[in-house]
């Protein structure tokens, strides 16, 4: 039965499709047999089912990770490097299948699905190389005959909780670092997109990751109990999460019960600023990539687009013209430029934001409607969006570009910073002095100057204010999964 279900995905290697969770190297169902139905958001047709696991399975997964930790944590950095590089090679080998799988369960275009696999695998490659660079240090002592040495050790069992918008990359950004550091893991993927997580676990096993080092618990209805256990269990030593700010706060509070380490990448409300001296063609192209990638379902996409009044009409006209040429549809169709939103709740939120803005004076330049009885939403550009619109307080997470005029640098910086979150910010200017001033004044963790793209494996990804804690990726990303230990040698 599972074999026939897997063949329906159209993969070259159907064995990548798993319909069970993973605990201690065994593919298992929920103890009560309950299932989660996973649908293709482009068609609303069932893709398959995964187990509706609960507290008992989560406890088993944590215990399996704890059992595997002593052996995995004492492997050499070179051994972990080699295994991760094998996993990276397997992700490259199965590039087409993994990209197609992302498209089927998430809805993004096949080009974006394959692009995500490239991005996702880059974290495995990066952390394979970082595994052998977890250097310690010697600190000069104030006392004779004493040496101070600092070493780094893996924290232990790590709970990994990820969102549906990047079904693969949000896992590897955390998993790669955890494995490279010598940690063992329990992964809770989102119920909307579990198959990518399960495929990654299968490839990790093929690469030589031992049983129990990676465990995958799938859940939907039991998410509160599962998440609580993953945060509060004294066996778990680290929690890493990507998702909304309200959920991040809940998880942080739970993790505080045992004072475990946390990495939280929470919500954003990214400003995109176009100054009067900007290259308008470049700014429009970047806005399209930044705002509409994944149909606007990315945490770093522009939520507000602030345009200087002297170039506002030109920018708005060019952006609307480009957006009007988009084609929404099934991501597997080569002619599709933008896929569906993940589910009806997402389309309802975009509709609510548009209706609110229009009721307060905004104008619809293009788009503005949901395709009836589907998850497709017309890519939309609104002009003259007022500052009291809902978009100002809520991240839309959809294909809605909200344009606002401004006149001065100080004015737009105040507008951009008037939010409780601060993940990413973008601006366009050819004035080098302004570039430095604005980059330093924006209250965000990441600033893009004259580009609409930020995400890379080699950079420290994360925010400030209520956008989270810690950094993922880059040279310091692995440190989030390690403890520093001081060893003082006397009598020398």
UniProtKB/TrEMBL annotation:
Q: Any idea which residues are catalytic in this one? A: 265
Keyword terms: Oxidoreductase
Q: Recorded E.C. number(s)?
A: 1.2.1.16
**Which PROSITE patterns does this chain map to?**
ALDEHYDE_DEHYDR_GLU
* Known catalytic reactions: succinate semialdehyde + NAD(+) + H2O = succinate + NADH + 2 H(+); succinate semialdehyde + NADP(+) + H2O = succinate + NADPH + 2 H(+)
Molecular function GO terms recorded: succinate-semialdehyde dehydrogenase (NAD+) activity; succinate-semialdehyde dehydrogenase (NADP+) activity
Report the CDD domains cross-referenced here: ALDH_F5_SSADH_GabD (cd07103)
Q: Which domain of life does the UniProt lineage start with?
A: Eukaryota
Pathway, per record? Amino-acid degradation; 4-aminobutanoate degradation
Any idea where the Aldehyde dehydrogenase domain is? 27-486
Q: What Gene Ontology cellular-component terms does the record carry?
A: cytoplasm
**Top EC class, one word:** oxidoreductase
User: Which SUPFAM superfamilies does this one have?
Assistant: ALDH-like
Annotated GO biological process: gamma-aminobutyric acid catabolic process
Q: Which family does it belong to?
A: Belongs to the aldehyde dehydrogenase family.
- Can you say what this protein is called? Succinate-semialdehyde dehydrogenase
């Amino acid at each position: 039965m599972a074999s026939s279900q897997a063949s329906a995905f159209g993969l070259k290697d159907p064995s990548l499709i798993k319909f069970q969770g993973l605990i201690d190297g065994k593919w298992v169902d929920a103890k009560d047999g309950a299932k989660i139905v996973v649908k293709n958001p482009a068609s609303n047709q069932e893709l398959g089912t995964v187990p509706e696991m609960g507290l008992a399975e989560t406890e088993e997964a944590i215990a399996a990770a704890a059992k595997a930790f002593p052996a995995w944590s004492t492997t050499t950095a070179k051994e972990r490097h080699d295994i991760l590089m094998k996993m990276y090679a397997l992700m490259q080998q199965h590039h087409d299948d993994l990209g197609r799988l992302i498209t089927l369960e998430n809805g993004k275009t096949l080009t974006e699905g394959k692009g995500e696999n490239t991005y996702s695998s880059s974290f495995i490659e990066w952390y394979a190389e970082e595994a052998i660079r977890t250097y310690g240090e010697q600190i000069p002592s104030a006392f004779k005959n004493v040496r101070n040495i600092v070493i780094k050790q893996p924290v232990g069992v790590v709970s990994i909780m990820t969102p549906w918008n990047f079904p693969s990359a949000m896992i590897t950004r955390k998993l790669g670092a955890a494995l490279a550091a010598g940690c063992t893991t329990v992964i809770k993927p989102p119920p909307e997109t579990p198959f990518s997580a399960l495929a990654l676990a299968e490839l990790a096993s093929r690469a030589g990751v031992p049983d129990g080092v990676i465990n995958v618990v799938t859940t939907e209805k039991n998410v509160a109990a599962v998440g609580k256990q993953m945060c509060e269990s004294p066996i778990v030593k680290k929690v890493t999460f990507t998702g909304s700010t309200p959920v991040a706060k809940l998880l942080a509070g739970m993790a505080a019960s045992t004072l475990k380490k946390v990495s939280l990448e929470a919500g954003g409300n990214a400003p995109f600023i176009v100054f009067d001296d900007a290259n308008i063609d470049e700014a429009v192209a970047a806005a399209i990539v930044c705002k509409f990638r994944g149909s606007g379902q990315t945490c770093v996409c522009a939520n507000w687009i602030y345009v200087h009044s002297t170039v506002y009409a030109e920018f708005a006209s060019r952006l609307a013209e480009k957006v009007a040429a988009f084609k929404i549809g099934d991501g597997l169709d080569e002619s599709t430029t933008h896929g569906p939103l993940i589910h009806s709740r997402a389309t309802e939120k975009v509709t609510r934001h548009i209706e609110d803005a229009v009721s307060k004076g905004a104008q619809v330049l293009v788009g503005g409607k949901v395709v009836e009885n589907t998850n497709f939403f017309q890519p939309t550009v609104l002009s003259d969006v007022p500052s009291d619109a809902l978009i100002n307080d809520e991240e839309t997470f959809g294909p809605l570009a909200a344009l606002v005029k401004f006149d001065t640098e100080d004015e737009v910086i105040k507008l951009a910073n008037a939010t409780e979150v601060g993940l990413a910010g973008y601006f366009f200017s050819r004035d080098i002095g302004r570039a430095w001033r604005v980059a330093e004044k924006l209250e965000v963790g990441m600033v893009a100057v004259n580009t609409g793209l930020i995400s890379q494996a080699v950079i420290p990804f994360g925010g400030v204010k209520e956008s989270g804690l810690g950094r993922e990726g880059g040279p310091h990303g692995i440190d989030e999964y390690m403890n520093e230990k001081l060893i003082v040698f006397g009598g020398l």
